[in-house]
Amino acid sequence: MGKGKFSSGVDLPLPVSAPGVTKQEQAYQAIRDAILNGLLQAADRLPSSRVLAQRWGVSRGTVESVFERLQLEGYIVRKVGCGSLVSAVVPDNYLKAVDDGRTDAPPREPVEHEEAPVRQVRDYRAQVGVPFVARLANPLLISPAEWAAHLQRAMVAMQPEQMCRIEPQGALALRSQIARYLRNHRGIDCDAEQLLITNGIRHSIDLVARCVLAPGDPVCVEDPGYTAVHRIFEKAGATLSYAPIDQAGIDLRGVPNLADCRLAYVTPAHQSPLGVIMSATRRLELLDWAQRQNAWVIEDDYDSEFNYQSAPLPALKSIDSMNRVIYCGSFNQALFSNLRLGYMVAPPELHQRILTLWHTVGRSVGVSEQLGLAAFMQGPAFLRHLRRARQEYQVLRDTVLDTLKAEAPGRYRISGEHAGFQLILWLSPDHDQDALVREAETLGMLLQPLRQYCRTIDLAPAFVLGFAALTRAQAKTAARHLARLLR
Question: Phi-psi bin for 74: left (phi > 0), alpha (psi -120 to 50), beta?
């Protein structure tokens, strides 16, 4: 027998799920919920996939897929000779909050702030067709004619009152479609009334910052992290506390004044820029901290639609039993970058305050775009586009990786390649990073050093390589040029 206690997981019943939920999803929920509820604890050994398959009346392949997903998310580890062991450590306070139903912190009024100085960095804005800053949705993957047809259909069906007045939170038709998508694909139990339509994730974060932060409030952010969001918090008058990122995601133990933080910003599905998936243990620790400190967590669901190894991972919000998470999403990466349509799901206490501020500063999301997107999502077109885009981005990623492997073996290391529009290329010790940047520019390439995303953390030399908005020929040619430089 392998090490670890043998669990009672064989007795876990499959949960009763809504119509259309697959056996695989039911099996996943049964094991994950048992871990979150404390029925299965750290170091407990799960029954074999064969035993569970017989118990639940499903194929062994289905259970194996569930185990692989749980391992990827950090709930279990699989070891030869030991079987599958529970790895997620669930904080006691998390379990207590599940039991007693504690929810929100006391309300705080919006405040005005003076502007803080902006840190100056070199301009590496994402650009279509430019290796390797092409880290945005590829505009060639959506047909303008197809998008125009949905817009036209929405405009033809528009009622006169919709041309003059729209629901305060955004068009109900769009919010209903987004809620359905979040329930089915991100694991978030929400409805249309809980959603607010915004211009994008940065706009959502700006609204939250204005509503919950007072001048001088510390905000916990990832390091390395998304610098545009850091500037939003600085403009809101906050002071930034930097949390280091390791292979399990954000490490709260590395934040010296964490007890004073009012807000934390995270990208758990695909950390920006490292691409790390936040483990289940770290997710629960973050929720536990937020509950104990009466703090909020902004979840930027970065790149969640484009995972090349498995189905998109569940959102942090999906396990937010304490109502501490403000979930932010956008269609600017799913469709095209200038769509400027995003959304958020805020806890009830914050929802009305954010909506009031949104009205005060003036809404700017057009009704035609909202209704057109709703029409696009209502049928199969939206999910078909995501599948097509995911396949193309994987081809582009593999083109870059395969070319580098063939032409510059042993001269670099890759991480963060399992999802998203970019990956990290770590240099071998004998490389001169600055020289590579200069040489790449002469070949029409922009190599952005990872250090430009870092504030206090000191990482080895590496580049952030964006590939999504390239053609296949551009990806191949650029990878060959880069391989020659690395050699």
Answer: left
Domain span(s) for CATH 3.40.640.10 in the chain? 143-379
Matching residue, tokens 């963060």: 416
Res. 296: pLDDT tops 70: yes
Q: Quick: pLDDT tens for 253-267.
A: 988 788 889 999 999
- Domain at 384-486, CATH from 3.90.1150.10, 3.30.70.1520, 1.10.510.10, 3.40.50.150: 3.90.1150.10
Taking residue 387's Cβ as centre, other Cβ atoms within 10 Å add up to: 12
Whole-angstrom distance, CA of residue 464 vs CA of residue 460: 13
Listed in order, strand segments (DSSP E) in 117-217 are 195-198
Distance between CA atoms of 228 and 231, rounded to whole angstroms?
5
For 243, list phi and psi in degrees, rounded to 5: -105, 125
Distance CA 435, CA 440 (A): 8
pLDDT tens track for 102-152 = 433 333 333 343 343 333 344 688 888 999 999 999 988 988 888 888 888
**Per residue in 432-455, is it b (16+ CB within 10 Å) or e — as a string?**
eeeebbebbeeeebbbbbbeebbe
Q: How much is the pTM? A: 0.82
317: confidence class by pLDDT, cuts 50, 70, 90: very high
What is the predicted pLDDT for the residue at 471?
Answer: 93
**Which candidate, 4, 76, 78, 97, places its Cα nearest to that of 34?**
76
CB within 8 Å of 437: residues ≥ 6 apart: 447, 449
Nearest Cα residue to 309 out of 426, 390, 213? 390
Strand order in the sheet with 448-449: 412-415, 422-427, 462-466, 448-449
The answer to whether the CB of 131 falls within 8 A of the CB of 444 is: yes
Q: What share of the chain has pLDDT > 90, as a percent?
A: 55
The CATH 3.90.1150.10 domain(s) of the chain lie at 384-486
CATH T-level topology, domain 143-379: Aspartate Aminotransferase; domain 2 (3.40.640)
- Identity at 256, one-letter amino acid code: P
CATH top class, domain 5-88 = mainly alpha
